[in-house]
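# nightly structure sweep
# worker-07 picked up a monomer target from the shared queue
# config: single-sequence mode, recycle default, output format = C-alpha cells
# input follows
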Amino acid sequence: ENLRKDGLGKEVEDGRILMVTGDGREGYEAGGPYDAIHVGAASPTTPPKLIEQLASPGRMFIPVGTYFQNILHIDKDADGKVTEKEIMGVSYVPLTDLNKQTDRGH
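# output follows
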C-alpha cells in the first residue's frame, strides 16, 4: 500500500519490486547469491545464512551486536574466503522474526 502511495505501484505489479516477509537473519535464499547485502537492522551475531547467500566475490554491510553494536564490512573473495572488518559503532533496531515484527509472538 505504501509503495503505491509513493507512486511505485507499477514497479510492484510488474515484479521490479518484490516484498518478502520473514526472519531477516535467514535472508532470502531464492534471490541469491547476492553481489551485495546491506542489512538495515542489528543482528546479535553475524547470520551464517547471509554469508552463505553472499556471492563470491561479494560484500555485506551489517550492524552486529546487542547493546554495543558495530557496522561490519564483510567481504567474500572469489575463492569463498570471508573477511570481516569493524567500521564504526552504531545503534540500530534489532533484526527480528515475523512474529516479533507483527506482535504475534506475545
